[in-house]
Amino acid sequence: MAVDLQRGGPQPGTVLRAIRLMLWSIVHFVFYFMQQVAELLAPLLLVLGLGWWALPRLVDAITTHEATADQQARDILNSISGTIPHTLVLAGHSLTPTGLIFDGLLLMALAALGATISAVAARGM
Hints:
The protein is mostly helical. It is about 75% helix and about 10% strand. The chain has helices spanning about 10-65, 70-85, 95-125, and strands at about 5, 10, 90, 95. The longest helix is centred in the first third of the chain and has 54 residues, at about 10-65. It comes from Lichenicoccus roseus. Keywords: Membrane, Transmembrane, Transmembrane helix.
Protein backbone atom coordinates (compact mmCIF):
# COMPACT_ATOMS: atom_id res chain seq x y z
CA MET A 1 0.00 0.00 0.00
CA ALA A 2 1.36 3.37 -0.95
CA VAL A 3 1.34 5.95 1.82
CA ASP A 4 0.97 9.66 1.21
CA LEU A 5 3.57 11.25 3.49
CA GLN A 6 1.86 14.65 3.52
CA ARG A 7 -1.56 13.35 4.58
CA GLY A 8 -0.30 10.43 6.67
CA GLY A 9 -2.72 7.80 5.28
CA PRO A 10 -3.23 5.47 2.35
CA GLN A 11 -4.05 6.92 -1.03
CA PRO A 12 -7.72 6.64 -2.07
CA GLY A 13 -7.00 4.52 -5.16
CA THR A 14 -5.02 2.03 -3.14
CA VAL A 15 -7.95 1.11 -0.90
CA LEU A 16 -10.20 0.55 -3.91
CA ARG A 17 -7.56 -1.67 -5.54
CA ALA A 18 -7.24 -3.70 -2.33
CA ILE A 19 -11.03 -4.18 -2.14
CA ARG A 20 -11.15 -5.13 -5.83
CA LEU A 21 -8.33 -7.64 -5.33
CA MET A 22 -10.10 -9.14 -2.32
CA LEU A 23 -13.40 -9.52 -4.23
CA TRP A 24 -11.73 -11.09 -7.28
CA SER A 25 -9.83 -13.46 -4.97
CA ILE A 26 -13.07 -14.61 -3.35
CA VAL A 27 -14.73 -15.10 -6.76
CA HIS A 28 -11.70 -17.04 -8.00
CA PHE A 29 -11.70 -19.27 -4.91
CA VAL A 30 -15.43 -20.03 -5.06
CA PHE A 31 -15.48 -20.93 -8.74
CA TYR A 32 -12.22 -22.88 -8.60
CA PHE A 33 -13.53 -24.90 -5.64
CA MET A 34 -16.82 -25.50 -7.48
CA GLN A 35 -14.84 -26.65 -10.50
CA GLN A 36 -12.79 -29.12 -8.46
CA VAL A 37 -15.87 -30.68 -6.83
CA ALA A 38 -17.65 -30.93 -10.19
CA GLU A 39 -14.61 -32.53 -11.83
CA LEU A 40 -14.49 -35.10 -9.05
CA LEU A 41 -18.17 -36.04 -9.05
CA ALA A 42 -19.04 -35.76 -12.77
CA PRO A 43 -17.22 -38.91 -13.98
CA LEU A 44 -18.44 -40.87 -10.97
CA LEU A 45 -22.10 -40.04 -11.62
CA LEU A 46 -21.73 -40.58 -15.35
CA VAL A 47 -20.11 -44.01 -14.99
CA LEU A 48 -22.59 -45.13 -12.32
CA GLY A 49 -25.53 -44.02 -14.45
CA LEU A 50 -24.21 -45.68 -17.60
CA GLY A 51 -23.44 -48.91 -15.73
CA TRP A 52 -26.85 -48.97 -14.07
CA TRP A 53 -28.53 -48.24 -17.42
CA ALA A 54 -26.58 -50.96 -19.28
CA LEU A 55 -26.74 -53.73 -16.66
CA PRO A 56 -30.42 -54.71 -17.09
CA ARG A 57 -30.02 -54.64 -20.87
CA LEU A 58 -26.97 -56.92 -20.70
CA VAL A 59 -28.72 -59.35 -18.37
CA ASP A 60 -31.80 -59.40 -20.63
CA ALA A 61 -29.61 -59.99 -23.69
CA ILE A 62 -27.87 -62.89 -21.95
CA THR A 63 -31.22 -64.27 -20.78
CA THR A 64 -32.73 -64.25 -24.25
CA HIS A 65 -29.55 -65.70 -25.75
CA GLU A 66 -29.48 -68.48 -23.17
CA ALA A 67 -33.21 -69.22 -23.53
CA THR A 68 -32.53 -72.26 -25.65
CA ALA A 69 -29.83 -73.52 -23.31
CA ASP A 70 -30.07 -74.58 -19.67
CA GLN A 71 -33.40 -73.85 -17.93
CA GLN A 72 -31.74 -73.50 -14.52
CA ALA A 73 -29.34 -70.82 -15.81
CA ARG A 74 -32.27 -69.01 -17.41
CA ASP A 75 -34.16 -68.98 -14.09
CA ILE A 76 -31.12 -67.60 -12.26
CA LEU A 77 -30.62 -64.85 -14.84
CA ASN A 78 -34.32 -63.95 -14.71
CA SER A 79 -34.18 -63.64 -10.92
CA ILE A 80 -31.07 -61.44 -11.19
CA SER A 81 -32.77 -59.30 -13.81
CA GLY A 82 -35.77 -58.85 -11.54
CA THR A 83 -33.64 -57.63 -8.62
CA ILE A 84 -32.08 -54.69 -10.47
CA PRO A 85 -34.10 -51.62 -9.40
CA HIS A 86 -35.30 -49.01 -11.88
CA THR A 87 -35.35 -46.25 -9.24
CA LEU A 88 -33.65 -45.77 -5.89
CA VAL A 89 -34.96 -43.41 -3.24
CA LEU A 90 -32.24 -42.15 -0.89
CA ALA A 91 -33.10 -39.56 1.75
CA GLY A 92 -36.14 -38.46 -0.23
CA HIS A 93 -34.25 -38.12 -3.52
CA SER A 94 -35.23 -40.33 -6.43
CA LEU A 95 -32.26 -41.67 -8.38
CA THR A 96 -32.58 -43.16 -11.86
CA PRO A 97 -29.93 -44.19 -14.38
CA THR A 98 -30.86 -41.43 -16.82
CA GLY A 99 -30.93 -38.92 -13.96
CA LEU A 100 -27.39 -39.87 -12.94
CA ILE A 101 -26.19 -39.58 -16.54
CA PHE A 102 -27.82 -36.16 -16.88
CA ASP A 103 -26.36 -35.02 -13.54
CA GLY A 104 -22.89 -36.16 -14.62
CA LEU A 105 -23.14 -34.21 -17.87
CA LEU A 106 -24.52 -31.21 -16.00
CA LEU A 107 -21.57 -31.31 -13.59
CA MET A 108 -19.18 -31.42 -16.54
CA ALA A 109 -20.82 -28.27 -17.89
CA LEU A 110 -20.59 -26.71 -14.43
CA ALA A 111 -16.87 -27.55 -14.27
CA ALA A 112 -16.33 -25.87 -17.64
CA LEU A 113 -18.25 -22.81 -16.48
CA GLY A 114 -16.23 -22.72 -13.25
CA ALA A 115 -12.97 -22.93 -15.20
CA THR A 116 -14.05 -20.09 -17.47
CA ILE A 117 -15.15 -17.80 -14.64
CA SER A 118 -12.06 -18.69 -12.62
CA ALA A 119 -9.84 -17.73 -15.58
CA VAL A 120 -11.69 -14.43 -16.01
CA ALA A 121 -11.34 -13.75 -12.28
CA ALA A 122 -7.63 -14.51 -12.42
CA ARG A 123 -7.20 -11.99 -15.24
CA GLY A 124 -9.18 -9.43 -13.26
CA MET A 125 -6.77 -9.73 -10.36
